DNA sequence: CCGGATCCGATGTGATACTG
DNA sequence: CAGTATCACATCGGATCCGG
């Protein structure tokens, strides 16, 4: 948690768009993962999620907050504004199931991609 | 499996739209569940999934087939056409994780709905 | 620093009608 | 029986610009 999140955390792994299993919207699973080991600031989350615009990140965070999976803590000080997001107990309880499906995807992503390629190739042949 | 699928199988339970966890598109998880105990014909699937139009059901089945999760078997006979869908080994391997997330939803759906209601009520107050 | 406002294309979902 | 064709609509994700 003390360490900042690496910028390439989701660059290669976790191709959410490719997985048949989704948690919340496009970015929700990554957000939960980022919060698994402690609270994070908005700008901290933007590092690994650098391909998402602020607006969309806000929308995802709001949706997770609405579901009671994360909580938002805002503190105003002379140094400026500080907003932190953290998992609620409910959000933490979702980490287990989330890891189960992530494990499944990691284990079978090759079969999945091969099946798609094969299917698309067969369709291509039929169209041609 | 020999028994037909009950028409109200998904009427109350499994409010997929309410769950933050999704498998494939809107109907994919229900389809996999229907196929868990054996192959089913297109028209058999339409019984529990009576709120989905043929076009959308076809699209869902195609998507699952593309991912290699189900297989499509077509046989033509004098009695007419017969198309059956069944889980592939890959599809069967997904049943475990699927049940894990379904269990989580069953266990926490009340907290989830309460959180949403509370959040929306607070937002309502702010707007007013 | 942490967003909101606005616009827009892509995608998902569905009703209705029709077909090999 | 097992789908297709067409049209319509809502939501999602993103680009861009703006604000406290």
UniProtKB/TrEMBL annotation, chains A, B:
UniProt keyword annotation of NAD present: no
Gene3D superfamilies (alphabetical): Winged helix-like DNA-binding domain superfamily/Winged helix DNA-binding domain (1.10.10.10)
Domain HTH hxlR-type: 14-113
GO-annotated molecular function: DNA binding
InterPro entries attached to this UniProt entry: HTH_HxlR (IPR002577), WH-like_DNA-bd_sf (IPR036388), WH_DNA-bd_sf (IPR036390)
Keyword vocabulary terms for this entry: DNA-binding, Transcription, Transcription regulation
UniProt name for this protein: Transcriptional regulator
